[in-house]
Amino acid sequence: MEYRHIPFITLSEIASRVWITLSKCNFECKGCFSPVRDIKGEKMSVDELVRLVKKASLDYYQKLPQEIIITGGEPTLNRSYLVDLVSKLNFSDVIIETNGYLLDEKYLDELVKAGLCEVMLDLKAYDRDLHRWYTGFSNDHILKNVKSIHKKVRLVIKTVYIPGIIEKSEIESIARFISNIDPEIEYRINDFKPTKGISRNPTDLEMDDAYLSAKKHLKNVIISRSCRREGIVLDRKSWITVFPNGTFKRRSTEDYLKTC
Q1: Tally of structural domains, the chain
Q2: Is residue 2 part of a domain?
Q3: Within a domain: residue 231?
Q4: E strand or H helix at 249, and its extent?
């Protein structure tokens, strides 16, 4: 039986939506804010994890979730585990949030056959050297995979605006690349959350300029200030964390780093 380490799952207060967090990532992003880049949490089998998702959802929403987002860390690290997990979450729409490095056409075909509805791909940079410097990996595989993903399943692409590193010109290069595939692909620009002193929060003006640059090439561009799926800023800013033992804890964006 296969296992992955699960630090927590998260329930949205906005909609019946669950995030499953699988710890460990293959990238070494210099500005990573996630406390689950390394292995953290409890070892759980797919069946144990699915039971946790069902029980937590029924307890909190009184129904199974409409949508489940599998995130990380990097969810694609263990192929058979992820395919099995997607297949057993067939009571909801299933999305994976990934850096796209491992998600080749054959892997994607297995996930789509298992029931995958959408890929949210975090494209760090278009420039190959910049991508390698920031993540430790080339983006050659990722750019190739973007094209095949779009042919098979709904695709959303996200980039974090990092002042001094990933700025307006780089975001416009990404938007131009996406538009050559399909200008209707949704593109989200997120603001950087400083954790290691490599940069700062972007200003509203910087974010707006990047948005306008992307809009020259794409029809569906969103400035996204959080991990919410909605494209608008909402007043409610807290989530419900559920740990592997089933205990609940409300958390805000500010105490996310303390959750683990």
Answers
A1: 1
A2: no
A3: yes
A4: strand 248-252
Give the integer Cα–Cα distance in Å for 218 and 208: 15
Tens digit of each residue's pLDDT (9 = 90 or more) over 160-192 = 999 999 999 999 999 999 999 999 999 999 999
Most distant CA atoms of the chain, gap in Å? 51
List the one residue out of 33, 27, 38, 118 whose CA is nearest residue 70.
118
d(CA 146, CA 159): 14
* Overall size of the chain counted in residues: 260
Domain that holds residue 50: 7-258
**Residue 113 corresponds to which amino acid?**
K
Residue 4 makes CB contacts below 8 A (sequence gap 6+) with 22, 23, 24, 43, 44, 49, 78, 81
In this structure, what CATH number is given to the domain that contains residue 182? Answer: 3.20.20.70
For residue 84, tell me if it sits in a domain. yes
Residue 70 falls inside a structural domain: yes
Pick from 37-41, 114-118, 151-155: least confident? 37-41
Instruction: For residues 172 and 175, give the distance between their C-alpha atoms in angstroms, rounded to a whole number.
Output: 5
Per residue, the 3-state secondary structure of 177-242, as one string, reads: HHHHHCCCCEEEEEECCCCCCCCCCCCHHHHHHHHHHHHCCCCCEEEECCCCCCCCCCCCCEEEEE
Gap between the terminal Cα atoms of the chain: 25
* pLDDT above 70 for 231: no
Q: What is the pTM of this model?
A: 0.92
Dump pLDDT digits (tens) for 188-215.
999 998 776 789 999 999 999 999 999 9
State the Cα–Cα distance between residues 11 and 38, nearest whole angstrom.
22
